[in-house]
């Protein structure tokens, strides 16, 4: 099946900030894994709601409240459909971090005997095990550490190989009869590798463990069907998928959401309150206490409709072309080491790397002076850096609005880093790389 033509120039024109300059140069934005830029339709959707329909949802009988509620729930349906789910299977959160904490604290509440009878199966006992991989973001490590500390459970770690791929043999050793939760990332925010979800889910299902997927780095880049992946729960963040800040989603299989006790409590998530007891609404409202992120949800719906209009398969194909250019270009620069170099692995357009003899922060400043925005540090994933023997890295992460020219400007800048900082043997290599990239651009 042929894909629709992808007009990256037209896409770029939809993103106002990409017309800005940095350090007197046109901006090359390669930090979308941290936060993405927002198209005009997303900015307009939030502003339009606030100017024309703003009211509290699910709380009023007046016309404006009814209109706001309808828009809000339409947004839920749109975002749920984007990840292959039904509306009632999507809980609004303020981001993936909150979603992961919601799950961990809800399981902790089940351990305390809270919730419906079905919640008892989620309760942890001392010695039960929670499993994560070495490639996780801190947001998919720390909540499980805290849950283990509160319940007496044990946190176990599935190794990654030197090339960044998950060691499935080790996963089969770790995931056993005492495993109750397996939490893992769909795509590492350092390595860019699409992890083998089906194989990990099969191991977890074989022992009756709950699966929790961090889909932050896959939702913006891959056609996504969370129910089809077979995971029990999954989280994603709006601001990484061309949406606004302060909004995200928690997907859950209906029976799993129904078994989870509430995490935050208060208004909007109850059916009846006395001083003796409280009765809670069913999911998803059970997990949406307090004032809702209404304008943000509506803007996120505009984002997913924008992506669907482009076609996620076409977005993915465009980004795959960028990914190959980034990896092949960086691999050809002397003194650059790629993190997560697994051959043949499916990837998104995200690559972390180190430059021999130059600290990542210096590389980032060097690139910024040339108008190229990248991320430096350990990217809230310190353990994977430690596993690969580095303290920090540079991360270039592309998105649908990036071009080959963006990538080539980044590569040209990286090729000059070691020469600029006087690293031995780098001058000739840097000059050769710059000349080669200039020749490539002139030949196009």
From TrEMBL:
<dbReference type="InterPro" id="IPR010970">
    <property type="entry name" value="Cys_dSase_SufS"/>
</dbReference>
<comment type="function">
    <text>Catalyzes the removal of elemental sulfur and selenium atoms from L-cysteine, L-cystine, L-selenocysteine, and L-selenocystine to produce L-alanine.</text>
</comment>
<comment type="similarity">
    <text>Belongs to the class-V pyridoxal-phosphate-dependent aminotransferase family. Csd subfamily.</text>
</comment>
<feature type="domain" description="Aminotransferase class V">
    <location>
        <begin position="28"/>
        <end position="409"/>
    </location>
</feature>
<dbReference type="InterPro" id="IPR015421">
    <property type="entry name" value="PyrdxlP-dep_Trfase_major"/>
</dbReference>
<dbReference type="Pfam" id="PF00266">
    <property type="entry name" value="Aminotran_5"/>
</dbReference>
<dbReference type="InterPro" id="IPR020578">
    <property type="entry name" value="Aminotrans_V_PyrdxlP_BS"/>
</dbReference>
<protein>
    <recommendedName>
        <fullName>Cysteine desulfurase</fullName>
        <ecNumber>2.8.1.7</ecNumber>
    </recommendedName>
</protein>
<dbReference type="InterPro" id="IPR015424">
    <property type="entry name" value="PyrdxlP-dep_Trfase"/>
</dbReference>
<keyword id="KW-0808">Transferase</keyword>
<dbReference type="InterPro" id="IPR015422">
    <property type="entry name" value="PyrdxlP-dep_Trfase_small"/>
</dbReference>
<keyword id="KW-0663">Pyridoxal phosphate</keyword>
<dbReference type="InterPro" id="IPR000192">
    <property type="entry name" value="Aminotrans_V_dom"/>
</dbReference>
């Amino acid at each position: 099946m042929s894909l629709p033509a992808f007009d990256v120039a037209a896409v770029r024109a939809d993103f106002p900030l990409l017309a800005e300059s940095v350090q007197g140069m046109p901006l090359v934005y390669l930090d979308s894994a941290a936060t993405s830029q927002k198209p005009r339709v997303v900015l307009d959707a939030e502003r339009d709601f606030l100017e024309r329909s703003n009211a509290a949802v699910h709380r009023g009988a007046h016309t404006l409240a009814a209109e706001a509620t309808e828009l809000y729930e339409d947004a839920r349906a749109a975002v749920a459909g984007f990840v292959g789910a039904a509306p009632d299977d999507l809980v609004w959160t303020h981001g993936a971090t909150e979603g992961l904490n919601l799950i961990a604290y809800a399981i902790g509440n089940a351990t305390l005997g809270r919730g419906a009878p079905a919640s008892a199966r989620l309760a942890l006992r001392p010695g039960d095990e929670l499993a994560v991989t070495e490639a996780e973001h801190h947001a998919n490590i720390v909540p499980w550490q805290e849950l283990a500390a509160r319940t007496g459970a044990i946190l176990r770690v599935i190794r990654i190989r030197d090339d960044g791929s998950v060691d499935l043999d080790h996963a089969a050793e770790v995931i056993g009869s005492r495993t109750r939760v397996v939490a893992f990332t769909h795509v590492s925010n350092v390595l860019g590798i699409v992890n083998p979800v089906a194989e990990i889910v099969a191991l977890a299902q074989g022992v009756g463990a709950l699966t929790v997927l961090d889909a932050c780095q896959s939702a913006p880049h891959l056609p996504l069907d969370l129910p089809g992946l077979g995971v029990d729960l999954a989280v994603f963040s709006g601001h990484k998928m061309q949406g606004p800040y302060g909004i995200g989603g928690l997907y859950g299989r209906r029976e799993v959401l129904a078994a989870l006790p509430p995490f935050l409590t208060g208004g909007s998530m109850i059916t009846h309150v006395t001083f003796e007891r409280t009765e809670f609404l069913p999911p998803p409202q059970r997990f949406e206490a307090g004032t809702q992120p209404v304008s943000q949800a509506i803007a996120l719906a505009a984002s997913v409709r924008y992506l669907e209009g482009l076609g996620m398969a076409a977005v993915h194909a465009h980004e795959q072309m960028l990914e190959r250019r980034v990896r092949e270009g960086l691999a050809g620069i002397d003194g650059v080491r790629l993190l997560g170099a697994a051959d043949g692995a499916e990837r998104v357009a995200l690559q972390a790397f180190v430059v021999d003899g130059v600290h990542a922060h210096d590389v980032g400043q060097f690139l910024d002076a040339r108008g190229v925005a990248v991320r430096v540090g350990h990217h809230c994933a310190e353990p994977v850096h430690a596993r690969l023997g580095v303290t920090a890295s540079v991360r270039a992460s592309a998105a649908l609005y990036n071009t080959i020219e963006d990538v080539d400007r980044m590569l040209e800048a990286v090729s000059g880093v070691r020469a600029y900082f006087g690293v031995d043997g780098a001058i000739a290599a840097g000059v050769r790389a710059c000349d080669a990239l200039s020749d490539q651009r002139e030949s196009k």
